[in-house]
Write a structure and sequence with these properties.
By secondary structure, this protein is an all-alpha fold. It contains ten helices and two strands; from the N terminus they run H-H-H-H-H-H-H-E-E-H-H-H. 74% of the residues lie in helices and 3% in strands. Strand 1 and strand 2 form a beta hairpin. Belongs to the CDS family.
């Protein structure tokens, strides 16, 4: 399994980096939209949709909703002035606080939404839609002054989350003893969490030194720490929904990683939270 994970990562990471820096923002947005539609298709399992046709309609509706929001945006306007971006980012920060409460009180919290397809769909919307707009807002950031500024920011948050995930995995395997959330994901440990934070700190230091981020160190540290913690929350939240749906992986599209949601679960929380803190709070 580890071999397949490494091979897939070595293939996908260069593709993502090339897309970040070589594709125009709107083309990159369309690519992200396709990823979100695939995520919505997989989320259908959490909402109790058992047929592929039902899940396909959910994916189509998600894509249609995002396209309508994109088309409603005026041209040549600062993205941060648009409610289509500001509202989803604020909602994301509220949703992930709520998700934390659901995790802390699980399995008692599951009684509230276990048999509610409507709530499960709402949770999916609050997970996938702000993720799309977080990606869009970061990629558009500073575009008129420097077309690569947003690409650097997206690369930073992606490497931060991927590095944290890898550090947590290896530290957990080597030193894991105390369970982080045994009722949701027995393999995650507090030692792994510490390893993930240390890995993220190293990446943050190196990236801020060598890459043109142009931000005060204390702001970068705060945003990065919160984003890493949010990424862990995103991972645990998807694990909670998978446990309730009684499935191991959200899909089988990516060898060694499962489905699209299995690959982006950490980013669905980290990206909008990081974007919200960076662009709205600071």
């Amino acid at each position: 399994m580890l071999k397949y994970r490494l091979i897939t990562a070595l293939i996908l990471i260069p593709i993502v980096i090339c897309a970040l820096f070589l594709l125009p923002p709107m083309v990159f947005a369309v690519m992200t939209l396709v990823v979100c539609m695939l995520a919505a298709w997989e989320w259908g399992q959490f909402a109790g949709f058992v047929t592929q046709e039902q899940r396909l309609w959910l994916a189509i509706l998600c894509g249609f909703f995002l396209v309508v929001m994109l088309l409603s945006m005026p041209v040549y306007k600062n993205p941060l002035d648009l409610r289509q971006i500001r509202i989803p980012l604020w909602l994301a920060m509220g949703w992930w606080v709520t998700a934390l409460l659901l995790i802390l009180t699980y399995p008692r919290s599951a009684v509230l939404w276990r048999n509610s397809r409507t709530l499960a769909i709402i949770f999916g919307v609050l997970t996938i839609v702000p993720f799309f707009w977080g990606i869009f807002a970061l990629r558009q950031y500073g575009y008129e002054q420097n077309q690569e500024t947003g690409a650097w920011w997206l690369l930073y948050i992606m490497l931060l989350v991927w590095g944290s995930d890898s550090g947590a995995y290896f530290f957990g395997k080597a030193f894991g003893k105390y369970k982080l959330a045994a009722k949701i994901s027995p393999s995650k440990t507090w030692e792994g969490l510490l390893g993930g934070l240390l890995s993220a700190a190293l990446i943050s230091c190196l990236f801020s030194y060598y890459a043109p981020l142009n931000i005060a160190t204390e702001k970068l540290v705060i945003c990065s720490i919160v984003a890493v913690l949010a990424s862990i929350l995103g991972d645990l939240t998807e694990s909670m929904f998978k446990r309730e749906a009684d499935i191991k992986d959200s899909g089988h599209l990516i060898p060694g990683h499962g489905g699209v949601l299995d690959r982006i679960d950490s980013l669905t929380a980290a990206v909008p939270v990081f974007a919200g803190l960076m662009l709205l709070v600071f």
